[in-house]
Design brief:
Subcellular location: Endomembrane system
Distance between the termini: 32 Å
Protein name: S-acyltransferase
Shape: globular
Order of helices and strands: HHHHHEEHEEEEHHHEEH
Strand order of the largest sheet: 1-2
Helix content: 55-70%
Keywords: Acyltransferase, Membrane, Transferase, Transmembrane, Transmembrane helix
Structural class: mainly alpha
Membrane topology: Multi-pass membrane protein
Enzyme class: transferase
Length: 313
C-alpha cells in the first residue's frame, strides 16, 4: 500500500474538512428555503442535493489536482454532527442519560474508526526465504504470472486479491474506501461492530433531534427559530436518516453473509473461483456442461451463527 507523506496527509485532511463543511452547508439550504415542508419532502431533495454537491466536489478536485481522504471525510462528518448536537440539539430538553449515551457512542465511533484504519485485515505473506508481504509484489510482465501462481497456491484457503491495496487478503470481503482499509478475516468482526455502532449513533441523533423539532415547531409550519444553527440541526438530521437508509440494508446483507458463510467478493466474483463452480453433466458422453454457483463453505445457518457468536463472545 502506498505510504503518504505527512504534508500530503495533512493536505488531504484539509480538503476533506472543506468538503464536509461545503456538503453540510449546502444541505442546510433545504430547511432554509423549505422550512414549511414536511420531512418526506425534504429528504429526497436533500439526497439529490447531496449527490450533486459530491459530484461537483469530485470534479473540482480533479480540475485542481487535489486529493481528499475518505476516512477523513467520515471522521469530520462525525465531528460536525457532534458539534451541532452540542451547540444546538442538546439545548432542547435532552435528558442527562441520553446526553451521556450519545457522547459515549460518538467517542466509541471515533475509537473504532481509528482502530479499523490500522487493523490487519489478514494480509498473507509469500516467499519462504523472504518474509515479504504480497502488497510488495513486482510489477511488469512477471506480475501476472506471479499472481496466477499465487492464486493457485491459495486455492481453497479463501485468500483473495485486492486490486486497491495490491495485496492478498485472507477472507477478503471488500475494500472499504470509507475506512481506508480492506475488510478481511481479521477485522471483519470489528467492521460489523462499527457498522452497528454507526446505525445506533445515527438513530440516537435522530431521536434527540426529534425533541428539538417538537420544541421549535419544525416540519409543521410553526418553526420559531430560523437561525443557521437551527437549519443545520435539521440538515444533519436528514443527513443521518439518509445514512440509515443505506446502512441498514448493508448490515442486513452482511448478516446474510455471516449466516451462509459467504463473502461479498466471493458472491460477486464467484466465476473467478473454481471452488464456487459446480459442473453438472447429466450424461457421461454429453459435451455440454452447466456451471452453477455453489458454496462449499456453507455448513448451515445455525452453525455459522454459533461460530460468529463464539468469535464475538
Amino acid at each position: 500500500m502506498k505510504q503518504l507523506t505527512l504534508s500530503n496527509l495533512i493536505g488531504r485532511c484539509i480538503v476533506s474538512c472543506m468538503l464536509v463543511l461545503l456538503t453540510q452547508l449546502a444541505l442546510s439550504l433545504v430547511p432554509r428555503f423549505l422550512s414549511a415542508s414536511s420531512l418526506l419532502i425534504q429528504l429526497p431533495l436533500s439526497a439529490l442535493l447531496l449527490l450533486v454537491v459530491i459530484g461537483l466536489g469530485g470534479r473540482i478536485r480533479r480540475v485542481l489536482g487535489v486529493h481528499a481522504s475518505a476516512p477523513a471525510f467520515v471522521f469530520f462528518s462525525i465531528l460536525f454532527v457532534w458539534c451541532v448536537y452540542v451547540l444546538v440539539i442538546r439545548k432542547a430538553a435532552v435528558s442527562h442519560v441520553m446526553d451521556v449515551v450519545f457522547n459515549g457512542e460518538v467517542a466509541i465511533l471515533i475509537i473504532g474508526l481509528c482502530s479499523i484504519l490500522k487493523s490487519d485485515p489478514g494480509l498473507e505473506m509469500y516467499g519462504s526465504s523472504e518474509d515479504r508481504c504480497i502488497e510488495d509484489s513486482t510489477s511488469g510482465v512477471n506480475s501476472q504470472n506471479q499472481e496466477l501462481e499465487l492464486s493457485d497456491s491459495f486455492l481453497g484457503k479463501r485468500v483473495r486479491h485486492c486490486r486497491s491495496c495490491k495485496a492478498y487478503i485472507r477472507g477478503l470481503d471488500h475494500h472499504c474506501p470509507a475506512f481506508g482499509n480492506c475488510i478481511g478475516q481479521k477485522n471483519y468482526i470489528l467492521f460489523v461492530i462499527l457498522l452497528v455502532g454507526f446505525i445506533i449513533t445515527e438513530g440516537s441523533y435522530v431521536a434527540c433531534s426529534t425533541q428539538f423539532a417538537s420544541k421549535f415547531g419544525i416540519f409543521n409550519g410553526t418553526m420559531s427559530e430560523t437561525s443557521l444553527f437551527a437549519n443545520l440541526a435539521v440538515s444533519t438530521t436528514t443527513f443521518s436518516i439518509l445514512q440509515l437508509v443505506w446502512q441498514v440494508p448493508f448490515l442486513t446483507w452482511h448478516a446474510y453473509c455471516i449466516c451462509f458463510n459467504i463473502r461479498t467478493d466471493e458472491w460477486i466474483n464467484w466465476k473467478k473461483y473454481p471452488e464456487f463452480q459446480f459442473v453438472d453433466q447429466s450424461q457421461p458422453g454429453q459435451s455440454c456442461r452447466e456451471v452453477r454457483f455453489t458454496n462449499p463453505y456453507d455448513r448451515g445457518i445455525l452453525q455459522n451463527v454459533k461460530e460468529f457468536l463464539a468469535l464475538t463472545g
